[in-house]
Amino acid sequence: MFSRWLKQYMPRSLYARAALILVLPVVVLLLVVGVAFLQKHLEDVTAQMTETATREVTLVLETIQKAETRQQVLAATRPDLTTLELKARFVDASQDPETGRRRWYDFIAPQVESHLRAGLPDLVAVALPSGDEARLYLETDLGLLQLTIDRRRLSPTAPHQLIVTMVFFAVVMTSISFLYMRNQLRPITRLSEAAQAFGRGRVVSYTPGGAIEVRAAGSAFLEMRARIERQMEQRTMMLSGVSHDLRTPLTRLKLGLSMLPEDEAAPLKQDVDEMQLLLDAFLDFSRGVAEGPAEAIEPAVLLRQIVEDARRAGHQAELVSVEGDGTAMLRPMAMRRAVENLIGNAVRYGNRAEVSLSLTPKTTRIRVEDDGPGIPVEQRTEAVKPFSRLDPARNQNQGSGVGLGLAIVADIARAHGGVLRLGKSERLGGLCADIIVGR
Fold this sequence. Notes:
This protein has 439 residues and is α+β, with helices and mostly antiparallel strands. It has helices at 2-7, 14-65, 70-84, 109-119, 161-199, 212-257, 262-287, 299-312, 332-349, 380-383, 405-415; strands at 87-91, 123-127, 133-140, 143-150, 295-297, 317-323, 328-330, 353-359, 363-370, 419-424, 431-438. It has a 5-stranded mixed beta sheet. A 4-stranded antiparallel beta sheet has the order 1-4-3-2. Strands 5-7 form a two-stranded antiparallel ribbon.
């Protein structure tokens, strides 16, 4: 329970967590040493020194009580004041004692004043200014007496020096540690950026560096990236090769069917056309996202072109809203194919398609909605798998295909480091398909 509560307040980045691990022990050490020093050393020494000064002042007060005039007081106390290194004079009681302003770092002054007041009942005020002298104002029968004493006799000299020294060197060493830690974390940051870029479909230059463990992770990432690229290339070459090789016998079949009577060739032509559609779908799936690298484009401009092309093709499509502006890193041809597939599905299983765009500082969302029958919740995971056909619910109209439309869209979204999400359109009642990628 406590760890779960603490987790929400912990920093998320590795640099911040490492900084916390580095700074927290230093701060705790400073606090422990500082408190121990104040309590065990400064307080005890200050109490002893203040008690000694209190006895000296009490001796002077006893001498004053035997005198009848101020002149007699000064004459009688002169030997004691010289021996004790004190200065005495009477001041006007009608004016407030001049206590002055304490030094902001003189944290031992309150304890000095507390001990003096406890040992001297006649003490009116204590002045502990920024100089080297302390002034005590005492009430006597002959008026207000001011005693001046060396401040070094009341408390240790510069009690703040130890704490200041500790804080100074702690800041210096912590700063040096931060610089070293930053250099150690930089290879991890570079590895993270390279992995994130590859997840979004971009290949950036990366060379392993840093500690042995980080170098090993970097080398493993490069090997994994190379294997994935080889597998994608092999998949593309295999499907492209198969599709290309099958086009030749299909062409011969079409040529042979053209020589047959129409009534005999019609069913066979339908089979050939279906095979042609299957090959075209294979080619689209094999190409995937292989058409050029990602580049900074304006998604709003791309969607307007796609919707306009769909209208010219006779589809009822409309770009209903655009929220936000700016550019995003996308593969234009791949993203065009994804949106065109969604629009094609929308008008195939419904009557209209509505496209919308939402740009935030972190994400780009392209939404396509239709008024068709939609896809049930339990079948949405199956719908994005290759060669998956949701008969008969999704194909109750003129729908036909080989089950690669949504699979291609999902593949393109993943290649951009994003995801394809399927839901129900609240506005049209049919399918709502969202392509969400990072910016």
